[in-house]
Design a protein that fits this description.
The complex is a heterodimer of chains A (328) and B (351).
Chain A (H helix, E strand, L loop, with lengths): L1 H31 L6 H19 L6 H28 L8 H22 L4 E2 L8 E4 L2 E4 H23 L1 H11 L1 H6 L4 H27 L1 E2 L3 H16 L4 H25 L6 H6 L1 H4 L13 H15 L14
Antiparallel strand pairs in A: 1-4, 2-3
Helix pairs in contact in A: 1-5, 1-6, 1-8, 1-9, 1-10, 2-3, 2-4, 2-8, 2-9, 3-8, 5-6, 5-8, 6-8, 9-10, 9-13, 10-13
Chain B lengths: L4 H24 L1 H26 L8 H14 E2 L4 E2 L2 H23 L4 H21 L13 E2 L5 E2 L2 E2 L4 E3 L2 E3 L1 H24 L2 H11 L1 H6 L4 H27 L1 E2 L6 H14 L4 H12 L1 H17 L6 H19 L8 H9 L3
Antiparallel strand pairs in B: 1-2, 3-8, 4-5, 6-7
Classes of the chains: A mainly alpha (328), B mainly alpha (351).
């Protein structure tokens, strides 16, 4: 029971990070029906920028919270600028080209960003300085740290803020109108170019915060971290229904939970020594409490992907999504 | 194919040059023959990916997975790891078949979805294959994990072993030179197959799907099966190339099959000109020599200017590939040597 609760807490933490990153994918997809492949890299750069600021300020004697805030405040505009540049340089010129073209430029941009980060921050994983006193609270036999609480609360706040922005403001209406139909929205006086650029910038800003959260949760930043994080967040977006903002949040949280539970239990479940039939055959390996684990927690990164495949096969529109057409 | 006398003469000259090439390169060092062999291997991979991306217009970002499958099949069936030592002409077809099955398994659930889903699923697939190779060392040691499999058998035809040198008529045939000729034969076969495919009913169906899937479907093409066929064929070529890679290296490990390799092959196809066999070959040759070029120019230049290595040529190489993808799409979307039809298509909707 304790492990279960613990895995749920861990899953909720990573899940809320996935959710915030997934929002970036889903918003861009909503307006231009394109996967922004480079989004994971934007998140990575957010983590890197924050790392640099936090490390350089760590010894300055400022209160830890202020330092972290400074890191986040530096990462957000940096990522927003990159998001904007991405849109201008790689996507806007190809908006009317065949579908393959922007996909290929996106891949190219993602590789370029990744290796520029490698040049700037080096090949080795960077350890986030642990400046915040990470207090651990016990609930019902499980532990939750102050960093986990902060991540969950901050993510929920950002999701609420984004929902308010999209559903309650004038610009939000413009975004939704563009997502519905670019041409009609343009006829109604919406500046589609601005809306599209804005979704990139907002997504990148959210991604920056997500990058910092991810980095401080695992205590590490690395130039390749954007890849698997991006892949998982994209899976989350598809799970929830791509293009759907509430779906991305739901998908992110669910994916985090599935992953944590999978990591926690799949090793035990696929230990053939627990299977009556197999343990007879494998008596030799299973003797003296030995085990025969088919898939352990080292397959963690596989779960998200398997879920993506299952969703695509059985419910391609996702949990909350609109119908996905084969080809626009 | 009707050729004029001049074309025939040109072709004959190219053939003679390609036959003489390894001996000329060997004068500069066997390393250059090896580099050339890897360039040819990449040409093979690019031609395989070209079927998927260029002909059928499906963006496959995990192509290296099939290469990996082929390489591991070879490694497992011809190394002391399991004590199996099958001859290569048995293993290469097996590798191609296994890769083909992997392609179908991956393609079947995803091909009915739109292109960008396919891109990201293939991206994930490539990564998953690598994770499995890294972890399938327990509970049963199948792949030997991150350590990889070594002491893989070289090709052997009768008494001729590809790992050693033979002297025939005063000419020294070193191992790499033998592989070179073998690769050239495979390349020739692959080019012929590609040409025939392109002009066949299937090839036209691929192009039709690439240009307008709905119209293709309306014209009676079974789009799903035809797409699956492209996927399976591309995958088998990858599998064959993988088998040869394993034999040439005599060592495989998951590290050789990372995402960057897929991106590299994609850059070759895109830069040369998706869909055009000669363009793809040119793109692959061009980009294969980029790392060597950088090693011989950027490294000494940095040493001379700064006294130390500031930018790793390896990083520059990936930057070059990334830029190649972006700039090709931006300014010459049909590639440096475009296929006529593709050029029209890639340019028609541009603002």
């Amino acid at each position: 029971m304790d492990t279960l609760l613990q895995q749920l807490i861990n899953g909720l933490t990573t899940g809320s990070v996935y959710a915030v990153v997934a929002l970036g994918y889903t918003m861009v997809y909503g307006v231009i029906q394109l996967i922004n492949f480079a989004h994971g890299e934007v998140v990575m750069i957010g983590a890197m920028v924050a790392f640099s600021i936090i490390t350089s300020l760590a010894g300055s004697g400022m209160p830890p919270l202020v330092i972290v805030l400074a890191g986040v405040m530096a990462a957000i505009p940096a990522c927003m600028a990159i998001g904007y540049l991405l849109e201008r340089a790689a996507y806007r010129p190809l908006r009317h080209a065949p579908r393959l073209a922007p996909l290929i430029t996106a891949i190219g941009m993602s590789i370029i960003l990744q290796h520029l980060a490698l040049l700037a921050w080096g090949r080795n994983p960077l350890a986030f300085p642990q400046i915040i006193d990470n207090r651990v609270f016990g609930i019902g036999g499980a532990a939750i740290s102050s960093v986990q609480i902060a991540i969950i609360l901050l993510s929920l706040t950002m999701m609420a803020g984004l929902s308010w922005f999209v559903y309650r403001t004038r610009f939000g209406i413009a975004i939704r109108a563009t997502a519905e139909n670019v041409h009609v929205a343009s006829l109604m006086g919406v500046n589609a170019d601005r809306v599209i650029a804005a979704t990139f910038v907002i997504g990148a800003g959210l991604g920056a915060v997500a990058g910092v959260m991810y980095g401080s949760y695992y205590g590490i930043a690395h130039y390749t971290m954007g890849f698997s994080l991006g892949l998982k967040a994209f899976s989350a977006a598809v799970l929830g229904g791509i293009g759907n903002i509430a779906g991305a949040m739901l998908g992110g949280l669910l994916l985090g939970l599935v992953e944590a539970l999978g990591t926690g239990y799949v090793g035990e479940m696929t230990d053939l020594c627990h299977w009556p039939l197999a343990s007879g055959i494998l008596a030799e390996q299973c003797a003296d409490g030995g085990n025969f684990v088919l898939f352990g927690s080292n397959y963690q990164d596989v779960f998200a992907f398997l879920m993506l495949i299952l969703v695509l096969v059985f419910r391609p529109s996702g949990l909350l999504g609109e119908r996905v057409s084969e080809r626009a | 194919m009707n050729m004029s006398g001049r074309e025939k003469l040109g072709l004959a000259l190219i053939a003679v040059a390609l036959i003489a090439l390894p001996f000329v390169l060997a004068l500069a060092g066997t390393a250059w023959v090896r580099i050339t062999n890897f360039a040819v291997l990449f040409v093979l991979l690019s031609l395989g990916l070209n079927i998927v991306v260029g002909f059928a217009g499906l963006l496959d970002l995990g192509y290296v997975a099939f290469y990996a499958v082929g390489a591991y099949v070879y490694a497992l069936l011809a190394s002391p790891h399991f004590g199996l030592h099958l001859p290569f002409w048995v293993i290469l077809p097996i590798g191609a078949a296994v890769a083909c099955i992997a392609g179908v398994i991956l393609g079947a659930p995803t091909l009915r979805l739109r292109g960008d889903y396919l891109a990201i699923v293939t991206l994930g697939f490539g990564e998953i294959v690598r994770i499995f190779m890294n972890n399938l060392s327990s509970p049963v040691n199948l792949t030997n994990g991150p350590k990889g499999i070594n002491r893989i058998d070289s090709f052997r035809i009768g008494p001729v072993n590809f790992s050693g040198s033979d002297t025939i008529a005063g000419l020294v045939f070193s191992g790499p030179i033998k592989y070179y000729y073998f690769l050239m034969l495979v390349l020739l076969a692959v080019i012929v197959i590609n040409r025939r495919l392109q002009d066949s009913r299937i090839g036209r169906a691929w192009v039709a799907i690439r240009e307008d899937e709905v119209a293709a479907k309306a014209s009676g093409i079974n789009t799903r099966n035809i797409k699956l066929l492209a996927f399976a064929m591309g995958a088998s070529f990858g599998g064959i190339a993988g088998g040869m890679f394993a034999a040439m290296q005599t060592f495989v490990s998951p590290e050789s099959f990372v995402l960057n390799e897929s991106i590299m092959i994609l850059a070759m196809v895109v830069l040369g000109g998706m869909g055009n066999i000669w363009g793809v070959i040119a793109g692959a040759v061009l980009l294969s020599f980029v790392p060597e070029l950088l090693r011989y120019t950027v490294e000494p230049a940095q040493m001379a200017l700064f006294g130390k290595l500031l930018v790793d040529p390896e990083v520059l190489r990936m930057l070059v590939f990334g830029l190649a993808l972006v700039f090709t799409m931006r300014f010459r979307p049909a590639g440096l040597w475009p296929e006529t039809r593709h050029r029209r298509e890639m340019n028609e909707n541009r603002a």
